[in-house]
User: Fold these one by one.
Assistant:
Number 1:
Amino acid sequence: MASVQRLVAYERVSTARQVQSGLGLQAQRKIIEDFAASRQADVLARFTEVESERKADRPELAKALHHAKVTGATLVIPKLDRLSRNAAFLLALRDGGVKFIACDMPEVNDLTVGIMALVAEAEREAISRRTKEALAVAKARGVKLGNPNGAKSLRREGKDCWALRAAVSANAKT
């Protein structure tokens, strides 16, 4: 009898606004749940993070990778860009001894991971360039950029980003 595939789920959104809407995390969770069901796999653990993919130091990702490594499970992500759009990061992960699967490309191999990593990095750079260009145009038109109430309103309400991250992590474990 074949053994059941064991998975460790990793979901990530970049901003607190995405957490508040819940849509990004719910969509990612559904993609992973549908993937696991289609493979009759068990999700051993789920790790959720609110962090930019540009940051290499992501505590929840580190925990997910460690959990996958010690249990011999496969890290599962909804889409490759939820992990990173940095080719060096993805290639190091590929070579780091933890198997991972992106639900949107479940049949990738070492060659295609390398290619997709380079494509994802080029996409990240294009998004950054387009965003900077659009902000420059808006600024030239006299639009005031940024959130004038951002950090001040959070401090006024006695909230901080760590409380939000803790809430997201707690919700992810339920």
Number 2:
Amino acid sequence: MMLPLKNKLFISTRPVGASGELNRLLHEAGASLLEFPLIEIKSVPLSSEEKQLFSQMEQFQWMILTSANGVRYFFEILQEVTGTQKLPESLQIAVIGDKTSKTLEKYGYRAAFVNPGSTAEDFAEPFARHIATENSKPNIVLPLGNLARTVIQDHLKKLAECTRINIYQTEMPEKVDKTIAEKIETNRYDMLIFTSPSGIHHFTELFPKLNKKNIRMACIGDITAGAARENGFEPLAVAQGSSPEGIVESILNYYISKT
């Protein structure tokens, strides 16, 4: 059996519990994966006005959910505020990517608009065309993370009334695994895996003295890769898809190109 990544060691910086499928795929290719979370996702305390919006979802015609985390935190807050996870039948839901769509289905809802891309840029223009035919400006609610960019709101501002609610925040974990940190500092790994700009920023805070030219990393998407380059790194592999399969494929392609 051919194992293209035999004996290679990868380190995932994804949040706790988010690397299971990635670990399985790398293991099947002969590699090992260590989890070194550089992102911790927490709920955001909401104001009374923001909580009230959860009780008045009928005023919105659309809700845009951009990530699986957004789906989970939205329904947790909805349950907490209203005592139910039931949404008005008139509210249509748009999502970015299949992973977000599948997470939404776990709560009993099917997205009315699914964009196959994985970024706000991928989503904004197709969705703008989708709502451009509506008779009046729709009211749209966007439950997002605190670091989410304003791409969607900016693109839709002439077509819709957008209300943003920050429902979760991304932070640096309070503790990191010192054993894995030492492996990084002593160059005893093959590649680090980053899935968001936050992970890149937290890495630079945690390892300010490392020679950035010596850091070997794979990134999900151009946004994360761009953040890496802005901070002085050069990704060896960039996955266009945000799935574990996309990450592993980009890593395999890199090593194949080096043979």
Number 3:
Amino acid sequence: MAASSIELFDLSCLPRSGFKGGGTLAAMRARGLKLENHPNRAFRQDDDILCLVLAATEVFLLGSIGGDNTRLVELETTWQIGGAERTYLMPRRHSHAWFALEGDLVPEMLAKLCAVDFRPSVFGDLSIAQTSVARLNSIVLRADRKKRLIYHLLADSTCSAYMLACLKDAAEEFGGRVRDAGRLPS
């Protein structure tokens, strides 16, 4: 990838999930996830799953890109509503579209769609912004891979075609293009 280009990936085919409630962080730790009570911060897991702590009571889990997502599936299928953990499952696969943007010019591109400053000097690796992108409530996560600048964008799946069109339009101004998800560095 040339430094002046932006690559846009639709990762909506990959698994993602979430949990919410007063006991969520403790319940996730009990199930082996590494995380801290730092809202708007993500934590990489050994199996390459990303655990986004959105609040002291909510996590969003992004499946591994090109890896094993067995643990994510197990977290969803073994959770029981009758437990005393004070947390409940929030499946995210059908509620949120998932896009990834790669390239050094992504912060400039996002500036056309959002008021948050996503420059690497301001918005560090594993930082999260819950904001509006192209007038849609969105979650933006910076999660670099193999020394490559990568931003993940999660938005309402019912508006995925609109968001993809907005991202594609903005990326094209910087020589960007839509790529196959299999080309994202794992």
